[in-house]
Design a protein that fits this description.
about 425 residues; alpha/beta; six-stranded mixed sheet; 9 helices; 21 strands; about 25% strand; exonuclease activity
């Protein structure tokens, strides 16, 4: 794809259309209420939240992309001046409300931009996304994959978010006399908070701006800004610190919970090499057998899930590996499914950054792409051998089920396949251009 056509999560001038994966701040750097360069494509949920994030934004610029449908874009080649068509399909990224992946097809070939995503096997959203993605690719090679490589490191192995949510509930119930502080972002972790609220039958405090987001997302009765109504508070992540927890504990017993896949650390006490301060230590976790008493650190009953994903600091701070990004094993499964010819990590600022080719380069290349196509065709040929399946009915008759092969897409926007690469990238955003 030529430079000057499409940008994803990149908001400088020079493109004809722009795509937003989701509304987290690191994906909207350069986007503002006064931004007005070109049409901006996003999900329906993101469009609904847009005015709260960017008051005064010209909403006529927004174009809603429906999940699982091809959308056709009529663009102009910057070099030849001739018209060209690019098709795009959105897939739910399973990261936060409104988050999308984008699959692009055109004369340049086929490209997938994941944005931030969580590819957990237990998720129904992922199962639907897998079907949409494979149907969208059909029998075509994936020329390049722009990949969320936040946790592209074998050290990161997370439980499902469902398991992590149960672990957090266990921590809360083990501290019935404590106030609870949970660090979250301005968007995301809604399913976690809903699980806590419904399991414990309590309301959850959020700050006023976050309450507005909750109402826009359709949650009206669970959240409150009145501290007198609940002992569980969800606070901005930036305000979650040891100093804050120490101060709160001078008023009443309080524990903090940080749900994140990243190793959580705080600034070292000046002159002390221990990042948790001289009084802080990891406790309460028996990694040999996974058993833990959240209240005092002693061995106890079998908890919900593998507690190697739970750590305790300073006696009143817990970290739980509740991650909205894919862990290493999930990234592996995703790349193995797609086998792109080439790939590029979209995150370069992660403290654990590793080029995805280091671990997964063997799954990329022309041979691997054709391997995926041949596997798919072999499977389809096996299905075609059985043109009609006789099904015994409950009344002794039969009925025929035919046409097992998926219907081919009626439009083919692919021309000659050329290599594509990253021309320029700041943060997560990309502008795509031919080499």
């Amino acid at each position: 794809m030529e430079s000057g056509m499409i940008s994803v999560d990149k908001w400088s001038s020079g493109s004809q259309v722009y795509f937003l994966t989701h509304l987290h701040a690191d994906h909207t750097v350069g986007l503002s209420s006064r931004w007005s360069r070109a049409p901006l494509f996003c999900s329906r949920v993101t469009a609904k939240l847009f005015p709260s994030k960017f008051p005064g934004f010209d909403l006529s610029l927004l174009r809603v992309v429906e999940i699982g449908r091809w959308h056709s874009l009529s663009l102009v080649s910057p070099t030849s001046g001739s018209a060209t068509t690019v098709s795009v399909m959105a897939i739910d990224a399973n990261h936060c409300p409104g988050s999308l992946m984008y699959l692009f097809r055109g004369e340049f070939g086929c490209m997938l931009y994941t944005g931030d995503f969580r590819w957990e096997k237990s998720s129904n959203t992922v199962e639907v996304g897998r079907t949409i993605l494979l149907d969208g690719l059909k029998n075509e090679k994936l020329d390049i994959l722009y990949l969320d490589n936040t946790y592209c490191n074998p050290r990161y192995s997370f439980p499902s978010r469902e398991v992590a949510a149960r672990q957090i509930v266990d921590i809360i119930t083990a501290h019935p006399k404590h106030d609870i502080i949970i660090g979250i972002d301005s968007l995301g972790k809604e399913d976690l908070l809903l699980h806590i609220s419904r399991t414990l039958n309590i309301k959850i405090w959020v700050w006023p701006e976050r309450l507005q987001i909750m109402h826009l997302l359709g949650f009206h009765d669970i959240f409150t800004t009145k501290t007198s109504l609940t002992r569980v508070r969800a606070v901005p992540r930036y305000s979650f610190s040891i100093e804050t927890l120490e101060g709160l504990n001078t008023l009443c017993p309080t524990i903090g919970i940080m749900p994140s896949g990243l190793p959580w650390a705080v600034k070292a006490v000046k002159g002390n090499g221990n990042v948790f301060g001289s009084s802080c230590s990891t406790s309460g976790l028996n990694k040999s057998n996974g058993n833990m008493d959240f209240a005092n650190g002693s061995k106890t009953h079998e908890p919900n899930g593998d507690l190697r994903s739970v750590e305790r600091y300073c006696g009143y701070i817990y970290t739980v590996a509740y991650s909205d990004h894919s862990c290493f094993a999930e990234i592996h499964e995703f790349i193995e499914l797609l086998r792109p010819i080439s790939m590029k990590g979209i995150v370069s600022s992660s403290p654990s950054y590793i080029d995805p080719h280091y671990f997964f380069g063997h799954l990329c290349g022309t041979k691997q792409a054709f391997w995926r196509l041949h596997q798919k065709l072999d499977n389809e040929e096996r299905l075609e051998k059985v043109d009609t399946i006789e099904i015994k009915s409950t009344i002794g008759g039969t009925s025929s089920v035919a046409g097992r092969k998926r219907k081919r897409d009626q439009y083919d926007f692919l021309g000659r396949v050329s290599r594509v690469s990253l021309l320029r990238r700041l943060g997560h955003g990309v502008r795509i251009a031919d080499i």
